[in-house]
């Protein structure tokens, strides 16, 4: 049974939280600007070193450096936008078409039992990069959560990130190139 704890004082806190409209610069290196995604794009490093697996017209796809499971991808607009309503019509169409391609690629490469697709908009919603929206596309398998996560807060990922990126990149060429 779900227990509820009333904490009416939280409404004052939530209602008073400042709205974020400008990209955060707190803790940023003054010589480097933008989100971690923008910094990565501006680094000049090759895609195989940055784990970028696809580049589209307005967005790109990268392997998550801290994956929930193997094949965990992020679909990210090139332009720093904090929320969906900040995207142009072209960016919106390209973002969702790329998400659909990512789903097809992951189904082809990993044959998961299911997938999670979602966004965390804003830090309170779990957004770790709240000023640059990104869509998570996560393959899931029946029983992929086990005692390791439950009792030791540990995840077992059976594939190196470089191998995941290579497989997804090859899968993208095979599956999504015609879309």
Can I get a quick summary?
With 179 residues, the protein is an alpha+beta fold. Helices cover 35% and strands 14% of the residues.
Describe this structure as you would to a colleague:
The structure is a single chain. With 179 residues, the chain is an alpha+beta fold. The protein is built from 6 helices and 5 strands; from the N terminus they run αααβββαββαα. It has helices at 9-16, 36-42, 47-50, 89-110, 147-152, 161-176; strands at residues 52-55, 59-63, 73-77, 114-118, 135-140. Strand 1 and strand 2 form a beta hairpin. Helix 4 (89-110) crosses helix 6 (161-176).
Keywords for this entry:
globular; 35% helix; 5-stranded antiparallel beta sheet; 179 residues
Q: How confident is the prediction overall: mean pLDDT?
A: 79
Strand and helix order: HHHEEEHEEHH
Terminus-to-terminus distance: 47 Å
Sum up the overall morphology in one term. globular
Radius of gyration: 18 Å
**How many beta-strand runs?**
5
What profile does the largest beta sheet have? 5 strands, antiparallel
Low-pLDDT regions = 4-10, 16-30
- Strand-residue proportion: 5-15%
Helix content: 25-40%
Number of distinct helices: 6
Give the helix/strand class: alpha+beta
Q: Major sheet: order of its strands? A: 1-2-3-5-4
What is the topology?
Elements: H1 9-16, H2 36-42, H3 47-50, E1 52-55, E2 59-63, E3 73-77, H4 89-110, E4 114-118, E5 135-140, H5 147-152, H6 161-176
Helix pairs in contact: 4-6
């Amino acid at each position: 049974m779900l227990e509820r704890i009333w904490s009416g004082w939280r409404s004052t806190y939530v209602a008073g939280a400042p709205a974020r409209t400008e990209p955060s610069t707190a803790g940023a290196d003054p010589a480097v600007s933008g989100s971690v995604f923008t910094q990565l794009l501006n680094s000049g490093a090759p895609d195989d070193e940055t784990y970028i697996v696809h580049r589209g017209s307005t967005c790109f796809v990268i392997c998550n450096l801290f994956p929930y499971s193997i094949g965990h991808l992020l679909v990210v607009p090139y332009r720093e936008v904090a929320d969906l309503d900040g995207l142009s019509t072209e960016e919106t169409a390209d973002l969702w078409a790329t998400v659909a391609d990512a789903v097809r690629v992951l189904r082809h490469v990993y044959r998961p039992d299911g997938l999670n697709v979602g966004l965390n908009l804003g830090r309170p919603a779990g957004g770790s990069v709240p000023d640059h929206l990104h869509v998570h596309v996560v393959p899931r398998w029946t029983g992929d959560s086990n005692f390791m996560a439950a009792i030791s807060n540990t995840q077992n990922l059976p594939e190196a990130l470089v191998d995941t990126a290579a497989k997804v990149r090859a899968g993208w060429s095979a599956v999504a190139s015609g879309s």
